[in-house]
């Protein structure tokens, strides 16, 4: 037979749940800060992609114009 379970002190229970809640709060706050950084990175990537796309379109338009002038 297994021994009877031992009653856990309310102070220990309080400490465990306090640590759990503090960990959840810290994780949430940390996640928000990382999300802000990631949003900034993604915005810069999208801007760079748009600029590259405009350059590509402008270069293609210039090529089309140059080819039309040569003919």
UniProtKB/TrEMBL annotation:
GO MF annotation list: proton transmembrane transporter activity
Domain of life the protein comes from: Eukaryota
Pfam entry (one): ATP-synt_E
InterPro entries given in the database record: ATP_synth_F0_esu_mt
GO cellular component term, pick one: mitochondrial inner membrane
Coiled-coil region(s): none
A GO BP entry: proton motive force-driven ATP synthesis
Keywords: Acetylation, ATP synthesis, CF(0), Hydrogen ion transport, Ion transport, Membrane, Mitochondrion, Mitochondrion inner membrane, Transport
Subcellular location, record wording: Mitochondrion inner membrane
Similarity comment: family membership: Belongs to the ATPase e subunit family.
Known function: Subunit e, of the mitochondrial membrane ATP synthase complex (F(1)F(0) ATP synthase or Complex V) that produces ATP from ADP in the presence of a proton gradient across the membrane which is generated by electron transport complexes of the respiratory chain. ATP synthase complex consist of a soluble F(1) head domain - the catalytic core - and a membrane F(1) domain - the membrane proton channel. These two domains are linked by a central stalk rotating inside the F(1) region and a stationary peripheral stalk.
Assembly information from the UniProt record: Component of the ATP synthase complex composed at least of ATP5F1A/subunit alpha, ATP5F1B/subunit beta, ATP5MC1/subunit c (homooctomer), MT-ATP6/subunit a, MT-ATP8/subunit 8, ATP5ME/subunit e, ATP5MF/subunit f, ATP5MG/subunit g, ATP5MK/subunit k, ATP5MJ/subunit j, ATP5F1C/subunit gamma, ATP5F1D/subunit delta, ATP5F1E/subunit epsilon, ATP5PF/subunit F6, ATP5PB/subunit b, ATP5PD/subunit d, ATP5PO/subunit OSCP. F-type ATPases have 2 components, CF(1) - the catalytic core - and CF(0) - the membrane proton channel. CF(1) and CF(0) have multiple subunits.
Name this polypeptide is given: ATP synthase F(0) complex subunit e, mitochondrial
């Amino acid at each position: 037979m297994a021994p009877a379970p031992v009653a856990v002190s309310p102070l220990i229970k309080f400490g465990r749940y306090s640590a759990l809640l503090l960990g959840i709060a810290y994780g949430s706050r940390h996640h928000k800060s990382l999300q802000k950084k990631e949003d900034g990175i993604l915005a810069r990537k999208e801007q760079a992609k748009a600029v590259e796309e405009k350059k590509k379109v402008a270069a293609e338009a210039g090529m089309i114009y140059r080819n039309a002038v040569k003919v």
